[in-house]
Structures are given as structure tokens and as C-alpha cells.
């Protein structure tokens, strides 16, 4: 098991979360293929999107339903800042994770976190666990507690 995945599993254990990390098959490259591999709907995949904020070295994590496109203008109005695209180096530096494996917890630096309100309609959701081929299951209210994220309407 990758060191980042072990760290996420340890955080989950430390906070009393009982879910084990699941390793996806090699061909699970998208939310759709990940959902098929674990037997959930694409909407139950909690995808992590990192944006660069105006302040130097400041990041925003958006945790969104796998079927939703994010309205960046809406996010800018919610947080009162302009968003910029985050490249792979910025994502790795701010979160400690590579793109595709950004967990909602265990980041290298504190992040502002927004959570898509559409995730709250599901009994369980799945998020990345530190590597592009790993995920863990939780209830939406657990995601809110783990991240202290703000629940907002994000989709276009």
C-alpha cells in the first residue's frame, strides 16, 4: 500500500471511521469506471477538484458529485475570490496528493473546502483515498465532519 494511502487509512482509523480503503482495477480511469468497479452510481463519486486562489500558495478543494459540472462563477461569488486553474505541481504541493488521488482529508496545507450539496442526497458516497486507484466509502455527513467543509450549490 502506497504511503499516502496508508496515511489516509490512519487518519480514518484515528477519527473512528470504520471504512476500509478499496483498490480499484487498473482500467478505472474515470468517475464512471470507478463507479462501475465499486457498484455505485457516478453521482455517488465525490470527486476532488483543486483550484488556485488569489492569495499566494492558497488552494480551494471542491468536493463534487461525479455527475456535476462545477460553475466556477458561482464558486467565485461564494468565496469572494477569483479562481485559477491548479497545475499538477501546485496540487501535489498543497495537498500532498497527485491529481486523481486527492483525498478530502490529510492535506499538506490547510485548504478551504466546499462540498457539493448534491452529495447529501445519497446514503453513501466514495472519495479518493490518496492514490488515483484507491477510494473509501462514507456517509455525506461524515464528509462534512471530516473536512469541516461548507455545503453549497456548485453545479451549473
Automatic annotation (TrEMBL):
Pfam families recorded: tRNA_edit
InterPro entries, sorted: YbaK/aa-tRNA-synt-asso_dom_sf, YbaK/aa-tRNA-synth-assoc-dom
CDD domains, A to Z: ProX_deacylase
Residues annotated as domain YbaK/aminoacyl-tRNA synthetase-associated: 26-145
GO MF annotation terms: aminoacyl-tRNA deacylase activity
Superkingdom of origin: Bacteria
Annotated PANTHER family: CYTOPLASMIC PROTEIN
Name listed for the protein in its UniProt record: YbaK/EbsC family protein
Amino acid at each position: 500500500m502506497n504511503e499516502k494511502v496508508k496515511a489516509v487509512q490512519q487518519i480514518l482509523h484515528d477519527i473512528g471511521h470504520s471504512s476500509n480503503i478499496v483498490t480499484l482495477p487498473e482500467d478505472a480511469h474515470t468517475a464512471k469506471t470507478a463507479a462501475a468497479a465499486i457498484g455505485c452510481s457516478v453521482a455517488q463519486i465525490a470527486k476532488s477538484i483543486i483550484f488556485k486562489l488569489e492569495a499566494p500558495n492558497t488552494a480551494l478543494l471542491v468536493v463534487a458529485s461525479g455527475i456535476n459540472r462545477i460553475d466556477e462563477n458561482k464558486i467565485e461569488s461564494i468565496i469572494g475570490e477569483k479562481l485559477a486553474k491548479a497545475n499538477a505541481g501546485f496540487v501535489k504541493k498543497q495537498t500532498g496528493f497527485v491529481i486523481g488521488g486527492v483525498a478530502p482529508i490529510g492535506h499538506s496545507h490547510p485548504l478551504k473546502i466546499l462540498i457539493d450539496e448534491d452529495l447529501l442526497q445519497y446514503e453513501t458516497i466514495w472519495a479518493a483515498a490518496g492514490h488515483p486507484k484507491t477510494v473509501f466509502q462514507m456517509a455525506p455527513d461524515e464528509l462534512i465532519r471530516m473536512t469541516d467543509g461548507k455545503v453549497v450549490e456548485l453545479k451549473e
